[in-house]
Amino acid sequence: MFIKKTIEIDQKEFFVEILDTGGTETFRSMRDLYIINSKGFPIIYSITSQSTFDQKEQSALVLVVNKVDLSNTEIFIQREKGQRLADQWMYPFYQTSAKHSIYVNQIFIDLIREIDRRLACLRKASRH
Predict the structure, then answer these.
(1) Helix, strand or coil, per DSSP, at residue 80
(2) Greater model confidence, 47 or 16
(3) What spatial distance separates the first Cα and last Cα of the chain, rounded to whole Å?
(4) Count of Cβ atoms closer than 10 Å to residue 22 Cβ
(5) What is the DSSP letter of 102?
(6) What average pLDDT is seen over the chain?
(7) pTM of the full predicted structure?
(8) 13: exposed, middle or buried (C-beta count within 10 Å: 0-12, 13-18, 19+)?
(9) DSSP for 6-68, written as a single string
(10) Bridge partners (DSSP) listed for residue 3
(11) Quick one: which of 74, 93, 95, 127 has the fewest CB in 10 Å?
């Protein structure tokens, strides 16, 4: 799924493009191209799939675990493992449920704020 929209955060407008691959290989080449050309992106893995946790990219800006609404019997990757990785990379760590819209919007708001902050620092540094 591909979404383009303008959103307002902190009285500023941002144009965002979101490519949701749903973890499928079908969009792998598009995903890789978007990662290379993006200003930032979240890495999202499922607590039910070790392979999604193993396929992470350190160039992201936030780390997200999805499907936190599931029962403990369905969990294969413990929250602490994701938190340790986020701490190691010094990234914010979010626990979400796309199914129940838990923290989904907050991920993108915080991601956009971080991108804006980094770009402002780059612009300031380039003036000096």
Answers:
(1) helix
(2) 16
(3) 41
(4) 9
(5) B
(6) 80
(7) 0.71
(8) exposed
(9) EEEETTEEEEEEEE--TT-GGGHHHHHHHHHH-S--EEEEETT-HHHHHS--TT-SEEEEE-T
(10) 18
(11) 127
User: Could you tell me which residues come within 8 angstroms of residue 56 by beta carbon, excluding any fewer than 6 positions away?
Assistant: 43, 45, 63, 85
How big is the chain, counted in residues? 128
The two structure tokens encoding residue 55: 């396929």
Q: Give which of 34, 46, 42 is closest to 58, Cα–Cα.
A: 42
Q: Which CATH architecture has domain 2-127?
A: 3-Layer(aba) Sandwich (3.40)
- State residue 65 phi and psi, 5-degree precision: -105, 130
Q: How far is 18 from 81, CA to CA, in rounded Å? A: 26
Map out the domains of the chain as residue ranges: 2-127
Contact 128, 32 (CB under 8 A): no
pLDDT confidence band for 12 (50 / 70 / 90): very high
Q: Which residues of 52-87 are buried (b: 16+ CB within 10 A; e: fewer)?
A: bbeeeeeebbbbbbbbbeeeeeeeebeeeebeebbe
CB atoms within 10 A of CB 14: 16
